Amino acid sequence: MPLVQNAPPIPGLQSGKKALVVFFETDCPTCQLALPYLNAFKRDSIQVIGLSQDDERSTKEFVSQLKISYPVELDSGLKISRAYDPHNVPTFYLFDESGQVQQTLVGFDKKGLNELAAAMGQPPIAPPDDGAPAWKPGCSSRHLHPSQPMSGCLGTPDLEPEIDGRTSEGSAKLLRRAGDPASRITLGDEEDPFEYCRQKFGDALPVIPPTVEKVEAMVKASGLAPEAIIARVPPFYGEATVEKIAANAVMAGCVPEMMRVLLPLVRAACDERFNLHGVQATTHFAAPLVMINGPVRHELGFWSKQNVFSNVARANSSLGRAFQLILLNIGGGRPDGIDMSALGNPGKFSFCIAENEEENPWEPFHVTRGLKREQSAVSLFAAEPPRGVSEHTAPAGKTVLETISFALATVWSYRTCLMPEAIVVLCPEHVKTIHRDGITKEQARQFLFENTGVPVRHYSKEERAEGTQLAANYKEITVRGEKCYQKFRSPEAISIFVAGGTAGKFSAVIGSWSTGPAGSQMVTYPIPDK
Amino acid sequence: MVVIVHPGNESVPKAAAPPARLASLQGKRIGLLDISKPGGSFFLDRLEEIFRTKYGAAEILRTKKPTFAKNAPPQVIEQLRGMDAVVEGLAD
Hints:
The structure holds 2 protein chains of 2 kinds.
Chain A: E1 18-24, H1 29-34, E2 46-52, H2 56-65, E3 72-74, H3 79-84, E4 88-89, E5 91-95, E6 101-106, E7 108-109, H4 110-119, E8 135-136, E9 139-140, E10 159-161, E11 174-176, E12 184-187, H5 193-201, H6 212-222, E13 229-233, E14 238-241, H7 242-252, H8 259-269, H9 276-281, E15 287-293, H10 296-300, H11 314-329, E16 352-354, H12 365-368, E17 376-383, E18 387-390, H13 397-408, E19 422-426, H14 428-436, H15 441-451, E20 453-455, E21 476-479, E22 482-486, E23 494-498, E24 506-511, E25 523-527
Parallel strand pairs in A: 1-2, 2-3, 15-16, 19-23
Antiparallel strand pairs in A: 1-5, 4-9, 5-6, 7-8, 10-11, 13-14, 15-17, 17-25, 18-24, 19-24, 20-22, 21-22
Helix pairs in contact in A: 6-7, 7-11, 8-11, 13-14, 13-15
Chain B: E1 2-5, E2 29-34, H1 40-53, E3 59-64, H2 74-79, E4 85-89
């Protein structure tokens, strides 16, 4: 590798230790995917430094939201980028002990990252089966667009890679990062705008016409350029620009401040791990369940109490509906078209709940998912409709959990084990009883894992019922003295979420679609602070 | 008069022209793509047999998506390059 002559020093880089320096942009989806992997390095004998091509504010936000644990410096004026001249971001430079470039890696490449790890004497950092793609090309480096503003490339003709799986490896076919302005449709006085929008862009219910003024107010609240592309929405990979997201938000009845939640929600939905393409095209019941945590609940009025799954609060209903309209109008997942779900899901009108953190004696859901308590967050789960679990008579917390375990055994299909995951929505009365008996959240989850089973006597090879064909892989356990197959593959396949009103001992279990790296994985994204 | 902002995907999909229909399968190379749903192999096994014995296909290439829940990865599509025809087996 050539020595980079007369390059400005990289802030924080010490000689005498191997160092990995990664050039990145805060709004590059590949950088957002790649940089958290470097947290896995043990940094006692090596250095890891992130070098941001953006300003301090967006860099701080990036570091906080992605929980980057290694030092991140700013490349002010892009002087270092010009010297090293990476054509794309992320580009990783491995420096040897004397400060010479030993190896480079461009873009996100799990094999390449693990090779870099090996070159630094570290174990692999990118597991093959974590749901992220094996390879994803980077964006064009900021210094190659010197006329562009430093802070974000939004509204510029910058490019980002095609990621829809149709690009063959190694051919970095670049897609643009800013879309076209949305067309304006002029409706004459003889046309009813409500009826026009319902027919063309609705979810079978009337929508609010997305007038230019209303959409502009929504875009303004986002603080971003209207043409900035937030994500490409499967299955048709329509460009979700800020303006198009805003138009759908207006139609669904959102307040402009809701853009703060909608943008990370759209990004989360288009995260490869969530596999929205599959979720939208499956014949299964699945619909994305939106779960809200943190201070944003109070700031924007998300409801977490009685009727949490119902038509109770504008924030829940309008966010959930805006999201579904985005999936229909931008993603093309129309229920009368490519969405071939056999029975569908009432959640496809709107499916958004918030956690009742005030009635949750344990850590909130987003903290279990790895975020800080004071961080607002949105999580997505490819969900079956909720099924209720009534338990009004059992005095003991363990019995309540046992009652729930019987319902858990039925998710996906009774005899199918290992594949499904589930969310247990515990009502305040149930969680109070369980907590009163000294049971922690972790213990509750472990109990549900160990006590959810399907009796072996319910399987017959001759009947060939669903789930039977995989029984050789199932683990036998004993539940209430009976030989059973264990329903879930691990305790982590069960998540606990506290929601609902303080009266009524009714909880719910929510089954999943196909899970894991071959299906859909739950994703949690931070929501920016107010 | 009201002016509204188009809320949908405005990109026009580029339709690829379908290849010319094969006059016969005799001596042709046929790809069979299994999307990895249970039961798909029964259907494709039978098709392979018929293509070979009844229609004289020269080569049958069998390949499989790692999961039915996701798009076929580029390497699976690449395997099918050069086939005269491909059958994608959807099954449950």
